[in-house]
Amino acid sequence: MQRVTLSQRDVLGEGGVWPMRVRLVLVDAAGAAEQIPMTLESISTELPRLNGRPVPRFAYANDGDYGYGLFLLDAASRAYLLREIGSVGDALWESVRAAEQAPSDYLVALIRELATERDEVTINTLLSRLQIVFRWYLSDTQQAAAAPNVEQCLEQMMAGAPAVGVRILAFRAYAAVAWSEEGRARLKRLLATQHAIAGVTLSSNDRFRIIRRLLVLGDADAQALLVRQADADASDEGRRGAYASRSAIADAQSKRDLLGAFLTDARLPERWIEDSLAPFNAVEHEQITVALLEQALRALPELKRTRKIFFVNDWLGAFVGGQRSVLALQIVQRVLNQDGLPDDLRRKLAEVADDLERTVRIRARYAMAR
Hints:
This protein is mainly alpha-helical. The chain has helices at 75-83, 91-97, 103-114, 120-137, 140-160, 164-177, 181-191, 204-216, 222-232, 236-246, 252-264, 270-280, 286-298, 300-306, 311-321, 326-336, 343-366, and strands spanning 5-7, 20-27, 33-40, 44-46, 58-60. Among the domains are: 1-74; 262-267 and 288-370. It is built from 17 helices and 5 strands. Helix 6 packs parallel to helix 8 (204-216), helix 10 (236-246) runs parallel beside helix 12 (270-280) and helix 15 packs parallel to helix 17 (343-366). The longest helix is centred in the C-terminal third of the chain and has 24 residues, at 343-366. The radius of gyration is 23 Å and the shape is globular. The two termini are 44 Å apart. The relative contact order is 0.06.
């Protein structure tokens, strides 16, 4: 390296410079890491101590996450981290979210890392990202290609993870992403207790979790299984679970009726609605729910007036979070631009719109044709 500098850019175009303390990390050809604390007080700061050194295999300007900003990786560093994901924390994930790294490649690295990771907090984070990548960022074609490896990874974790907590995390992830015919069959075997997870007894909530996934996927047995589980658990919690599960049925008229009930049925407990929002807005049903999105968003002022303080956040997170398309983004932007939307609701909607815009951008660049 002839001349090394660390630079920042004002992405908002406001002409400001953000002073910050960061820690640069470099990994050389032998795999040795060097950490260099430094202060960035101007647009560019030179690092003469690095001049003349060989180009590192990996460089990252925010090791330890001390800096405040968006720190992205260069192509060579991304390629290195795809092979060494366990050592990088959030760096590669931010590259995926910035549409600079293909989600399908990141998913391969995630699966490899989950096979050896033992820390439950790290596993929980990786499984959350796996679900986002698989369900939101991949096309149907990519999901079909990735599903066998994703399901096998989670099956192995359910069967062989040393900690019960990890086996539970793997089960819940499996119940969220099972996609193939064999995946659905395994869920049904778990439901029928023909297959067990060592040290884990499925609760009624877990059983409804399985049924919701089967309903989302349109499995032929799902509605009969729902009736059976609803009959088996007649408690208040069971009735709430059954109601929420019905919202996962992929039927346009059923969802229109449910949305009407959410908005007008004063007898419907708020908790029942909250539990229904995620299955109602399963991203796999986006072609149905996008037709209901504008109605749901235009109800925000009334929901703010009549519902509890955090209800609107849950409502927005579900209805906007269950979308991936340009059409959905256009609907959100149209509502954002309407006159009369209170400023606090506009800010909340703009916040969730950022995630939708990111998803649309990632899919536009990396999702293969359906």
